[in-house]
Each structure stands twice: as structure tokens, then as C-alpha cells.
Amino acid sequence: MTVEPVASQNIIIAAMAGALIVLFGAVYALFFAWSRIHDRPRLMIVAYGAYAVLFAATLVLVRTLNLEGFWQVVAIVMVVGYLLAPQAIWHLCVGTHTGHSDNDTKNTLAVGGEREETP
Fold this sequence. Notes:
Largest sheet: none
Order of helices and strands: HHHH
Radius of gyration: 19 Å
Number of helices: 4
Number of domains: 1
Helix content: over 70%
Strand content: under 5%
Shape: elongated
């Protein structure tokens, strides 16, 4: 396995791609949770749009850094993890509130653990 050097202009592009991965990973998770908590499917579209930017930034990162073999596998695992982690965390949060009705669960998650009284 040979390691190809990275052109100096690609370092800046790779740094920007890395920043976009972190930023849009957070945006995806935020809008995913916000969509579920407030039952707004349109926000899920925004979440998946953010994920698409994250995916594209990952492709740019892999190409600009000449990643091959094992490192491509690491990038794939990272992208799949960014996709599935918010969903798994959502199911974990809902699963810890199984004794409550659906509205109670949404209210509990929306307030950060404190239950609101619903009429």
C-alpha cells in the first residue's frame, strides 16, 4: 500500500470538508430530534438535507486526502454512524419513557426531563 502525498491546496479543502462534516452532523441530529419532538415531518426533510451535505463533504474529504483501503472503510463507517446514531438515541430516549403515554413522552423530552401537565 502506497501513500500518495496530498497537495498543499488540498489541505485547506480537506480542513473545510472536515468542518462541514462536524457542523452538518450536528445540524442533522438537531433537526432530526426537533422533527420528532414537535411532530413536524418537514423538519425531517431539513435533517436529511443536512445529512446529504455531510455525505458530500465526506466524499470530498476522502478524495482530497487520497484515502484508500482501510481509511475508506473508516469513512463509510463514520457516514453510516452519523446516519444511525440520532435514530438509535431517539429510540433509546423513547424506550426509557415507555410507561408514559405518547403525549407524555413528547412533553417529557421537550422539557428536558420535567413532565408538563396535560389536560
